């Protein structure tokens, strides 16, 4: 047999190995099957949820998500964007230890949307993602632009884990499995996400599912599931689970965690209903004219903060940037635009390095570290 005739066979074998590696664990990572998720939506409709129609959850306002017809164009743009969205130098990390006693109001940002909130002596871990890729595949999909600043095992015990929705950059299978064995904290989630968690081994007793404007008491905190403008889905079916923001209310302080959302006038309603907030944690990255209603840009984040806080003095901390390249803008553009918009509006912001802990009541806040990176 000639060597030339072996080349196609070898190429096929290499491709088969690569494909099998890419698909490793795929069914489990996708989460609960679609019929079970559809049942959840139907039950929510039967229970009177106003956010369900025809077996799917819906935003209050019309949304403009990427349709299947434009998905190929978006994927092609992703593949040809080059180095846009990537830092030019290593992202500086911190590894600030947590105090033995949680503060009245503090936070630690671990990158992207992963935040450890300290509110009135309690800890809430929001949208924790420690995985290497935000994808169901171990070899394909957006990879970290910087390492996790600390191992998940270094985090202190938490009172609750809250999740905003089921997208891979907010709901991560390896992280859930690690947290499952790290303590007994409940997972407090929007309607439907419990199906994913139960499939991954989380006991039903540790899963609390809420509709918008429903609350649960955890220790001395009230955790309230609130409106966001986004969508959901880990496979081909969309919107069979709900998405949300979160209000964390303690005896003395209130924090708002935006998760992932487009701008909506509902922020002003939430500010009136659940404020005044002392701290807002809002997304500023992965915005695009291709999906203007589901991801806020930095100027909209400043407006959302003002809607949520009115004239109450409060701190804005940005998330959903720096860690994964999920859009088409330069790496540091979100924080540059945020700083300019915040200065113009008189809004107080803090931009920590990944792994850095902030006392939200302190006067001294981190200065520019990103320009040298971007």
Order of helices and strands: HHHEEHEEEEHEHEEEEEHEHEHEE
Biggest sheet, open or closed, and with what strands and sense? 7 strands, mixed
Distance between the termini: 54 Å
Q: Class by helix and strand content?
A: alpha/beta
Give a description of the structure.
- The protein is an alpha/beta fold.
- The protein has one domain (1-374): Metallo-beta-lactamase, Chain A, CATH 3.60.15.
- The protein is 26% helix and 18% strand.
- It has helices at residues 3-22, 26-30, 34-46, 68-79, 173-180, 193-199, 266-274, 298-309, 333-345, and strands spanning 52-53, 56-57, 105-109, 115-119, 122-126, 160-162, 187-190, 207-210, 214-218, 221-226, 245-249, 254-257, 279-283, 315-319, 348-349, 356-359.
- The strands form three sheets. It has a seven-stranded mixed β-sheet with strand order 8-7-6-5-4-3-16, covered by helices on one side. A seven-stranded mixed β-sheet has the order 9-10-11-12-13-14-15, with helices on one face. Strands 1-2 form a two-stranded antiparallel ribbon.
- α7 packs parallel to α8 and α8 (298-309) packs across α9 (333-345).
Brief synopsis:
This protein has helices spanning 3-22, 26-30, 34-46, 68-79, 173-180, 193-199, 266-274, 298-309, 333-345; strands spanning 52-53, 56-57, 105-109, 115-119, 122-126, 160-162, 187-190, 207-210, 214-218, 221-226, 245-249, 254-257, 279-283, 315-319, 348-349, 356-359. The chain is of the alpha/beta class. It has one domain (1-374): Metallo-beta-lactamase, Chain A.
């Amino acid at each position: 047999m000639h060597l030339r005739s072996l080349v196609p066979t070898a190429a096929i074998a290499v491709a088969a190995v690569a494909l099998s590696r890419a698909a490793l664990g795929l069914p489990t990572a996708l989460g609960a099957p679609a019929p079970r998720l559809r049942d959840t939506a139907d039950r929510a409709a039967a229970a009177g949820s106003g956010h369900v129609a025809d077996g799917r959850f819906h935003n209050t306002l019309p949304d403009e998500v990427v349709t299947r017809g434009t998905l190929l164009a978006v994927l092609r743009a992703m593949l040809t964007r080059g180095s846009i969205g990537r830092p030019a130098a290593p992202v500086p990390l911190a590894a600030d230890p947590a105090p033995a006693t949680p503060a009245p109001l503090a936070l630690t940002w671990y990158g992207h949307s992963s935040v450890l909130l300290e509110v009135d002596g309690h800890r809430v871990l929001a949208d924790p993602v420690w995985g290497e890729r935000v994808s169901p595949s171990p070899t394909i999909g957006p990879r970290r632009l910087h390492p996790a600043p600390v191992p998940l095992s270094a985090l202190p015990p938490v009172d609750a884990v809250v999740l905003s929705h089921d997208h891979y950059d907010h709901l991560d299978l390896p992280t859930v499995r690690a947290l499952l064995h790290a303590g007994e904290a409940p997972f407090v989630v929007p309607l439907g996400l419990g199906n994913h968690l139960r499939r991954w081994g989380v006991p039903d007793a540790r899963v609390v599912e809420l509709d918008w404007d429903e609350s649960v008491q955890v220790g001395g905190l009230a955790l309230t599931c609130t409106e966001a403008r986004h969508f959901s889905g880990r496979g081909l079916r969309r919107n069979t689970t709900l998405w949300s923001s979160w209000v964390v209310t303690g005896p003395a302080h209130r924090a708002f965690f935006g998760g992932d959302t487009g701008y909506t006038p509902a922020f002003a309603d939430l500010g009136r209903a659940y404020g005044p907030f002392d701290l807002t944690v809002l997304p500023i990255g992965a915005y695009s004219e291709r999906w203007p209603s589901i991801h806020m840009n930095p100027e909209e984040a400043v407006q959302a903060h003002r809607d949520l806080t009115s004239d109450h003095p409060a701190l804005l901390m940005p998330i959903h940037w720096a860690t994964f390249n999920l859009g088409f803008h330069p790496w540091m553009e979100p924080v540059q635009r945020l700083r300019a918009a915040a200065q113009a509006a008189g809004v107080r912001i803090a931009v920590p390095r990944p792994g850095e802990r902030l006392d939200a009541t302190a006067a001294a806040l981190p200065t520019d570290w990103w320009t040298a990176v971007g």
